[in-house]
Each structure stands twice: as C-alpha cells, then as structure tokens.
Amino acid sequence: MKSALSAFAVVLVGATLIVQAPRPVDAQGQGLCDSFATEQFSDVDAGDYGAEYILCMKTLGLSLGRGDGGYGPDDQLTRAQMASFLVRLWRNVLGRQCPDGRAPFTDVVAGGSHASNIDCLYGLGITKGVTATTFGTTAKLTASQISRFLLRTYEKAGKTCEDHDQELDEAITCLAALNVIPAGAEGRSREPVTRAQMAVYVVGLWHNLSGRGLPPTPPALGSRGQSQDEPSQGDSGGLARLAIEVLQELVVAPEQRSGYDRDLFEHWSDLDGDGCDTRREVLIRDSRTEPVRDPGRTCWIVSGLWYSSYDDQWVQAPSSLDIDHLVPLAEAWDSGAHSWSRDHREKFANDEGALVAVTSGSNRSKGARDPAEWMPPHDDITCPYISAWVATKARWDLTVDRRESDFLSGLLAGRCAGTTLDIRMPTLGFPVLDTPTLDPPTLDAPGGSTGAPSSTVPPNPGNTRNCSDFSTQAEAQEWFDTYFPHYGDVARLDGDGDGEACESLP
Length: 506
Prior knowledge:
With 506 residues, the protein is mainly α. The protein is 34% helix and 5% strand. It has helices at residues 2-20, 51-60, 79-93, 115-124, 143-156, 167-177, 195-209, 243-249, 278-286, 329-334, 342-349, 360-366, 382-395, 402-413, 473-487, and strands at 241-242, 292-293, 301-303, 306-308, 313-315, 321-325, 355-359, 420-421. It has a two-stranded antiparallel ribbon with strand order 1-8. Strands 2-3 form a two-stranded antiparallel ribbon. It has a two-stranded antiparallel ribbon with strand order 4-5. A hairpin with a 7-residue loop joins strand 2 (292-293) and strand 3. The longest helix is centred in the first third of the chain and has 19 residues, at 2-20. It is elongated, with a radius of gyration of 27 Å. It starts with a helix and ends in a 19-residue tail after the last helix. The model is unreliable at 1-30, 222-238 and 441-455 (pLDDT under 50).
C-alpha cells in the first residue's frame, strides 16, 4: 500500500509540474503528456482508439480506473462519471477552486464517490441537472451534450469563444479549432459517448487550459465504437432523419412546473437588427404571395396569403393569425428551459425555425398543451406536426415526459412510421399546397380568414389595463383580441400564455 501511495503521489506531483510549466503554443509534434504512468490500464491495448489519451488520464490522475485494473474504454459514459472527470481536471490538476455549497439533487448520495464533484460542477454553473432536483447520475450522455459541458468548462476558466446563436454551434466551432473534438459531425452526435471518447476530449481540454497549447489532432471514432465509414447522427448538419430515432434519443423526465412566467421569454425581438421583429419575419416568410406592406411603417404587413395548417384555412388578414411556438413557451419551461439564461430563452422564443403562422383560434385552442393533450384538428397535419414537435425538442435539448413520449412513439411506430425531420428547420415537414386563386384583398374589407384587415390599425395601448378593469372575461377577451395580433400581450392579461385573457373573471 505504501508503494502504491508513493506512486500516486508522483503522479500528482508530475501533474502539478506539467500544469506549472507552460509548453510551446503548438504541440502537434509532441506527445500528449509527460507519461509517468508506465503501465496502461489492463483492458486498453496500444492500438486501441484513444489509447494514448487514456494513458494520460491515468498519468494525470483524471481516472483511477474501475478498481479491477481496467478503464472500461467501451463503457458508455454516465453523468456522474462526467462530473468526476471534469472536476478532477478543474480542481486536482488545474488547481482551481470549487464553490462552497451542496447541489439540490435528491438522487445524489451524500458522501458518495461522485457527490462532491457533482456539487462542484453545479456550483460552477456547468450543469443544472436533468431537473431542478435530479442530477441523473446514471443517465448516459451524448456527444452533443458533452460538447456543451466542455465549452462551459473552457469558458469558466476565463477563455473565450466566438459567439453563435446556438450554444452547440459555438461549442463545435470552438472545440474543433482547439483540437478538443474531431472536426466534422462527431461533436453533434446524439449517440452515447464512451469513456474512451471522453478521455480524448478531457485530455484535449487539459492541453489547452494547462499552457501546453494545441494537442495533436484528435482521432475520429475508428478501431473502437463507431466505424469511421458509418455516418453519425449529426452528419450532413442535421439533414433528414427518422423522427422515431430522434425521439428515442430525447431524455424522458418529469416536467418542472413551478416558476413559469411568459415574460421570462422575451419576444417578439428583432434579433438580426433589420427592423422586422420575429412575428413579422415569420409572416413575410410564410406568405404564399408577396405581402402588401404599409409604406408608412417599417416592416408592417397589411395583407398576404397564409395557409393555417392546423385547421386547413387560407388567410389573407395578418390580424387573424398568431405565430405559434411549435413547443409552447410554458412547455419549454417545463422541459428544461427553467434552467436556461434569459438570453437563451429569448433565442428560443424567437427561433424562426420552430415558429409557424396559424389562425388565432387554432393557436389558442392548443394553448400550452403537448401532443398527448392536443393535436391539430386537421387530420392531414398529424405526422408533420409531431415530427416538428420532436425536431424542436431535439434542436433545443428539451426533455419529454413519459405520457408525451409514449403518445409520440405510438404514432411514429404506427400511422406515422417512416416520418422524417430536419432538426435545423422543424417546420420544413409541413405541407406546401398549391396556392389558391382568391380575389385580391381590399383595404376596406372586414377582417377574417379570407379578407384583408382595415388599413386602420389601433394604436398600441401599452400596459394600461389590469383584469380588474373588466367586468367579465368576455369583455377582457375582446380587448385582448383587439390588440394582441399587433402588439402581443402588452397588458399581461394572459398569465399562462394559452390565449385566454383574465380567466379568473366570470
């Protein structure tokens, strides 16, 4: 035992010396690390995928093995193991501090082998758990999830990466440039990551954070795990995939119901700064004819032609349309958005790829319900709708609850078998019908599903009303319906976002 402890001390001292002695900026021609470990793990051969990286894990004390002399290179990585690998790098090798305090996870046993590491990762803000009270210690991790954790660790260490609208895009671009992950599709994969892959990623991250500079180009999956000739889940940037396969990759977890407020998702925003907010961007995108604009106001749409797929209606008046979040804001909150930053929620709320113009009535009928609770009344849209729902959840790494998952699985294995999706643009699955020939709208025509609105648009009333200002719910609803198509819920009368104003009124 004494000799074993001495050897372990040498490993830690060697690791400390490595961290304190900066290396040249480019380490492409050098070994990964100064190997003080002369013996590889018993289940890793020199020619195996990531063998040199796994030896570095042993050298640096990042992995202590499984207790039987092996590393388990082909074992799928769990969330608890991920926490320990990253925190050992952070605290034991890089010498950085962990915040005080305990994580609020009921599934983490106090004093367990991973508990303090999970506390540290939570305190650093690198993960917030599967739910507010569950870490998911034994849950498997995908490469796309690991890419985010690696990026957050890198940035928490004071490093910066080029900003992107999506965190995963930022992670892939940054980590591939740092030689932490292979260039290409691997970092976007939704396949479970092995412990051998994690060794490649963690040692690459250590190389960049310890002053050694760029590591050698990381190996793509080859001799172990996925064949290099086998396309990964992320190949072709997220082109068409079977919806049922994507659904099976989503995490099934209970919903987090408390704390939701629609105002936590800022919309409609003008994220690209072109003068058109997201609502009007979608109206312009989805109009089957060139929309008529008010020349006196920036990006103000007077009329056009839209197909409301939920209820099979053609619409010429924009005031008759709502812009529907395929996954409603409240549902997103329940499924993971409660742990997001305000900026990330704003990007979700204005994600044009997951928004569709539909009649106000169909949108408000849907409210915040998931497909197990509500489906579009137009039967032909069933399969496109559920594939778009799954694509949106996958695009934003949202969870599904058990009832929702079972309902979607039933459809995708039965009536909707073979349905495909594109995570980049969930709405692409919606049907494109031949544009009908309709009488051109006139500016003085009454509003409705086939007429244009009046050229007189009510002025923005601002937040000037409360529910107590109305005698009945119908009165409040009339006021809400007058202004909502133009300005949204400016008076905050629809607290749960279901399209029904002041529901507590008689």
